Amino acid sequence: MTQVAKRARANTAGESHSIEASATPERNRQDLIKDIELLNQTELASIIVWAADKHDDVTRAVAVLARKAREKKREEEERQREEQKKRVISFDGLELLTNTRGMSNRQEYNAASKVCIGIEGIIVSIELQCGEISSPGSRCNGLFALADIGECVAESPGRLGHEARKELGSNQKLVSALRHIVTTMSEDERRVAR
């Protein structure tokens, strides 16, 4: 059983108070680890800042660990970029059509709203997947998929109901997504896409 030693210490006002100290440093370390596990990130950060202000070796340790963490993060981002550049995303088979023929105006209006939300989600998804770090093949496939959506919206009785075409026709998400992909393409990619 560990004996607890009590020491009296005076604070700056001259008052005495006791501090319990463990008889074994190992027990103290285990308790400290348990206590640290209870702290949140903000509390830990404030303790580290305080310790770094008081001790140069803590400041150096923080700087070394932060540099290693930044390097690791940069390497991971680079690895993800390289992986993304190798991957070609196919947008074939996107389901964005609905048959609203034979529906009443109210039914068509309700169906159109659902279709528009679905198509807008697809447009945003394609735009997010076809940025600067995506492969040229993915950007080209994304551009063609968005062009198909535009064609679907523009068709006159077409595959979309009147209400859905009307709502999507005034929506700028498609134009914005097309512009985003084209601006991230190289000149060679644009030539191939034409």
Task: Provide structural commentary.
67% of the residues lie in helices and 7% in strands. Strand 1 and strand 2 (16-22) form a beta hairpin. The model has no long low-confidence stretch (mean pLDDT 77). A two-stranded antiparallel ribbon has the order 1-2. Helix 4 (105-129) packs antiparallel against helix 5, helix 4 packs parallel to helix 7 (173-184) and helix 5 (136-154) packs across helix 8 (187-193). The protein folds into two domains: 40-86, no CATH class; 105-193. It has helices spanning 25-38, 41-54, 56-86, 105-129, 136-154, 162-169, 173-184, 187-193; strands spanning 4-10, 16-22. The protein is built from eight helices and two strands, in the order ββαααααααα. With 194 residues, it is mainly alpha-helical. It starts with a strand and ends with a helix. It is elongated.
